[in-house]
Every structure is written in C-alpha cells, then in structure tokens.
Design brief:
With about 300 residues, this protein is mostly helical. The chain is built from 16 helices and no strands. The protein is about 70% helix and about 0% strand. Helix 14 (about 245-265) runs antiparallel to helix 15 (about 270-290).
Amino acid sequence: MPATTDDVADGPAAWTGRRSVERSPLVSLLKASHPVPAAAVTVLTALLAGAVGLGPAAGAGAVAAVAAGQLSIGWCNDRLDLRRDRAAGRRDKPLAVGALRPGTVGTAAVVSLLLCVPLSLSCGLRPGVVHLGCVAAAWSYNGWLKHTVFSWLPYTTAFGLLPAFLTLALPGHPWPPLWLTAAAALLATGAHFANVLPDIEEDLAGGVLGLPQRLGRRASTVWAAVLAFASCVALTVGPTGSLSPGGGVLVAVTLTLCLVAVCGPPGLAAGRLPFLAVLAMAGVDAVLLVLATRPQAVGGS
C-alpha cells in the first residue's frame, strides 16, 4: 500500500514518525535535506578553497554559500518528490511518513535559497553569479530535467563550474584551467550515472525517466565508470601535460576499477560490485581534484 498521511496515523511505524515530530523535528528536517551528499559537496568545497589559496575569511564565505545552496537543493528535491516517495512507500523519507509538514520543508528550501544569494554575492559579483547559476541548474534538475534525457546536464554544469566559483574569488579573478573544469564536469556526470544505480528499478516504476534510467543499469554502469576514468586522466595529465610515474600508477588503478565495473558480473550482490568500483573511482578522483587544484595551476590551461 502506498504511504499516505492517513496511513501514518496508525501502527508502530507511524508512532515512530510521530515521536520524531515531537522529539526531534530538527533531525527530521536535516534528514530531508539529503545530508550526506550535501556534506560531501560542502567538505569538498572547503578542501578546494584551501587548495586554490583562498584565505580563511573568503574560504569560509564560499563554504557557507555552498552549504546554503546544497540545503536548498536537498529540501527542494524532497518536497517536489513527495507524491512519488509516498507512492513508493519510502519509509526513509521524513515527508513521506508524515514526520514533517510539506510546508515546513518548502519554507526551509526557500529560506536557504534566499540566504544563498547574499552569501554567494559576498564572495564577489562574478563568483557569486557563477555559484547562483550552479544552484539554479540543480533546482532545474529537481523540477524538470531529472525526468528527461538531459538529466546529466545540471550535474555537468554545476560541478564543472565549482572550481570557477572559487578561483574567481581570488585576486585577479582568474578562470580555472580548462582541464580542471573538464575533470570536475566528467566526475560529476559519472556520479549522476552511478547515483541512480541502487534505485534504478524504483525510479522507472515511479516515472523518473532520466538518461541513466532510459539506458538501463548495465549501460549506466559503463558510462559511470568510463566518465570517472576520463576524469582521472584529465586530473593526472592536465597540470603538466604529461603523465608522471605516480600519475601512471593512479591511472592504472582507476583503469582496473573501471574494468571491474564494466566487466564485473552484474548479478553479483544485485550489481553491488560494479557500483562499489565506480564509487571507489569517484573517491580517487575527488582526492585528485583537490591535489591538482593548486594556486600555481589556476592560471594555466
């Protein structure tokens, strides 16, 4: 049976939901913000801000802007997906089980978005506009593009411009080198394909027809792995234009993971092995992204 507001009024699960409203509404609200990806992007931003040479004050401002934007994106996503999550019986969603009012989550999304505007512009006009464009791309994904063949575009655009948001806040307002933008965009696009793998059947049943869902589990796994590997190559070759011995080892490691993801048996642990291989590649790429983003590399291309 789909979960509805009336369903939540009865049974042990409903009582747990009610107690969460009475005792920890802030915890429920935090859970509705998609805290894990929001925290991951915020922490990565903090690391990149230090890597490009932003000072403590400028770095803190950039991190605060990203945090506000990520919260608004997460709350917007859960609010817009309320009917689908109820129909799918998502007990892990506070809104779907009635632990939060839709108006509360909607208000939180709008307030955090409004806070994101001055926080972004406080970093400077150019970086502020870039970051607000990233947030707008993510909202467009929530509202429309996630159901289309262009579901990858907000990921590619928003994350590809994240280095620019930080480098434009530096003195002289330099744009990041092309290889850094490309590497970030490739990493995020691959993450989009990987992100849908655990829930691809549920998405299809719920009418979410983004590009990964249309391609299917196997093809999406291949795309996620290949894009993550391409990001690794860009990050190891881009800074110097050649492949160092250490970079060669990293490329070999990610190539091995790529082959595991692409050639691994999809039936093993319900396709868990390819998914974990892609996640490992993304982790390596995220570390490389921070290490490759150095002040001396920002001005080059």
